[in-house]
Every structure is written in C-alpha cells, then in structure tokens.
Amino acid sequence: MQKILALLVLIIPIYLAGLGIKWMRDAVFGVLVPELHYIWLQFLLGAVFSVLGIAFVGGYILHMEKRNNRVPKKEK
C-alpha cells in the first residue's frame, strides 16, 4: 500500500515536468497554448514546471536512498 501511495505522489510532479518540457518546446516553435497569452510566459512557466518537477523527483529518490543507507556519508 505504501509503495502505491509513493507512486501516486510521484505522478503529479512527473506530469508537470513533462508538461513544462512540452510548453517550452511549443514556445520555441511558436505554438501558443490558448490559456496563456504570451510566448515568453509559456516558456517561463514551462521552465519552472520542468525544474520543480525534476527537482522533486530527484529529491524523493535521494531521500529514499538515504533512508535505505545506500548513499555514502559526507566526509568533512
């Protein structure tokens, strides 16, 4: 049950990251999403969605690896 919940938590950021990449690609080729009125706004929101989605998934993976003691300790 816990793994299913974890998968559901990851689906939203993965979807947002994919949507962000699509919006950036569309902005580069000049295709405007009807909800947004400016190409630069579309590209900026796409970049934000992509960075936040990838950062969330990466942070989640790092947290799980630390919890399972698979990440080496930092040396001072």
TrEMBL record:
<feature type="transmembrane region" description="Helical">
    <location>
        <begin position="40"/>
        <end position="62"/>
    </location>
</feature>
<dbReference type="Pfam" id="PF11118">
    <property type="entry name" value="DUF2627"/>
</dbReference>
<keyword id="KW-1133">Transmembrane helix</keyword>
<protein>
    <submittedName>
        <fullName>DUF2627 domain-containing protein</fullName>
    </submittedName>
</protein>
<keyword id="KW-0812">Transmembrane</keyword>
<dbReference type="InterPro" id="IPR020138">
    <property type="entry name" value="Uncharacterised_YqzF"/>
</dbReference>
<keyword id="KW-0472">Membrane</keyword>
